[in-house]
Amino acid sequence: MMLSSSDFESASWELVVRVDHPNEEEQKDVTLRVSGDLHVGGLMLKLVEQINISQDWSDFALWWEQKHCWLLKTHWTLDKCGVQADAKLLFTPQHKMLRLRLPNVKTVRLRVSFSAVVFKAVSDICKILNIRRSEELSLLKPSGDYFKKKKKKDKSNKEPIIEDILNLEGSPTTSGPPVSPGLYSKTMTPTYDPINGTPASSTMTWFSDSPLTEQNCSILAFSQPPQSPEALADMYQPRSLVDKAKLNAGWLDSSRSLMEQGIQDDEQLLLRFKYYTFFDLNPKYDAVRINQLYEQARWAILLEEIDCTEEEMLIFAALQYHISKLSLSAETQDFTNESEVDEVEAALSNLEVTLEGGKADNALEDITDIPKLADNLKLFRPKKLILKAFKQYWFIFKDTSIAYFKNKELEQGEPVEKLNLRGCEVVPDVNVAGRKFGIKLLIPVADGMNEVYLRCDHENQYAQWMAACILASKGKTMADSSYQPEVLNILSFLRMKNRNSASQVASSLETMDMNPECFVSPRCAKKHKSKQLAARILEAHQNVAQMPLVEAKLRFIQAWQSLPEFGLTYYLVRFKGSKKDDILGVSYNRLIRIDAATGIPITTWRFTNMKQWNVNWEIRQVAIEFDQNVSIAFTCLSADCKIVHEYIGGYIFLSTRSKDQNETLDEDLFHKLTGGQE
């Protein structure tokens, strides 16, 4: 049957599309005659023909304003998409400029996909910046006054924000194909000098195809000079748990694009480590990642986003002072070939150890013996109205549990109690100056947590038992290869705390060139006279003075990780059946219900005991079921429930990573775990 032209006219209709002309300020409307069976790709072709400007249109796509979505399925017809004559379509580039404030407070400007989901966009950004493990980071849209506060202090400066921007406009994500390698290498060629974080000579040849020139790389991989005390005081705001909860409301949804979330061209966002599980940190490949992580930790300490004792604050200050001194000298230093030879030798000896499977002399013993610890320790269980009274018992630590007996002679019989530490929380309870070496264990039971305190006699005993507890909480035994490094880690941190009062105090010259208020929080700085503070920082510095640059940054990160509040992200919620609001703390392995007024934890639930979780989107409620018929439900008050849900699913996704995955990620699994659809 033939259609007459009038029939065709009635089946077709006029569609107005606005076009974002890249070289012109104004957007222009183009009217097209279309029919419902025209597919999206055909519509774009018609559009380009009618615009009749020869240029590369390959990055352009259609954005549907009312529905707030991209029309990226080019084979779908307009009928299938639901597009009718009243649709407002915009023909616009998918990649647009974005300004990102990095953890080191530097701003980079680069071109990012506004049509890809945020998970993918962050992956592309991290490739440009040479940060491995992009799944640990995300984009945060801060509250409206976040950037304005910074401008206030720069009244004298006409352009407060500009001076800081590192422009990577020619970045490789402009084209759809994979990013050029730049500094991002999956091969086993070391990309950085593992001692001082400078790009290794083998990497220099790549700089030509990457926007990350050698100079830009050092801006990202080296620590910036410390902020002035005035700038710090300006940024500092004492924050309650409720305030901290509000800060976390701005995380973008990883399963939707920037455009769908209302982000504008050239808007400023924060790029931050969102998930506090830093997988496979390796100085040979991760100079930028380690530095940005160090900077995020440094600002969290300085602005008191995480609490620490004064003793710890001084260690952090000493490490910062050390790192800033080394960073200055590292940037001006001319490296000799000596370090390259050392690196080759180190790589060879590493290879030998790997091939031999570690120490050969006691290999058979290791296979048959599961290591155990046995020693006298003191134990205390807090009960109301009882003062702390520690009692000595004979303890045996085997596999992932601790058994204790009245004395050594009874160890063959029944223990007084056996504590299974798998999934427990381990908190250091240490005061080195006061010779107190305690371990606080929070052991999960059906209705909350059992609290147990252990007290050790000296550093070595504490380091061994603490390391064993930390591994057991993750389900690992002392036979695991990470046990010895963990013991050494704890010992070295204790030694940093052990300020040697006999050590000679640094020369007055060195005291003069240090501005101690730059290295501690403003609140801590107010408590002490400047000279006194400088002397105490330099005293603590004696313990770290010989440390190479990258090791000092890693040590800072480890010290941050050992703080009791580390890795907790707070949200204001209302639990089902409760009459008042509570704080929910989300961590990499647990959820904590915290009293909003006092800050005291009420209950902890471990992810390992979680059976299922989902969201009731109608009433915006997150419901979670645990083992032993425990179930909870809450609505989120300080943020969208999708953000909290994504946090929980994201941590579970990250726990599935393993070193043999060759850095490829199962993106579908991430969206399945974080999407909230059953």
UniProtKB/TrEMBL annotation:
SUPFAM superfamilies associated with the record: PH domain-like (SSF50729), Second domain of FERM (SSF47031)
Pfam families: FERM_M, Kindlin_2_N
GO molecular function terms noted in the UniProt entry: integrin binding
Domain (PH): residue spans on this chain: 378-474
GO annotation (BP), single: cell-matrix adhesion
Region of interest (Disordered), residue spans: 167-187
Keywords: Cell adhesion, Cell junction, Cell projection
Localization: Cell junction; Cell projection
GO cellular component: cell projection; focal adhesion
Entry-linked CDD domains: FERM_B-lobe (cd14473), FERM_C_fermitin (cd13205), FERM_F0_KIND1 (cd17180), FERM_F1_KIND1 (cd17183), PH_fermitin (cd01237)
Main location per the UniProt record: other
Key word ATP-binding present: no
Record-stated family: Belongs to the kindlin family.
Protein name: Fermitin family homolog 1 isoform X1
Organism of provenance: Neomonachus schauinslandi (Hawaiian monk seal)
Lineage, uppermost ranks: Eukaryota, Metazoa, Chordata, Craniata, Vertebrata
Name of the gene: FERMT1
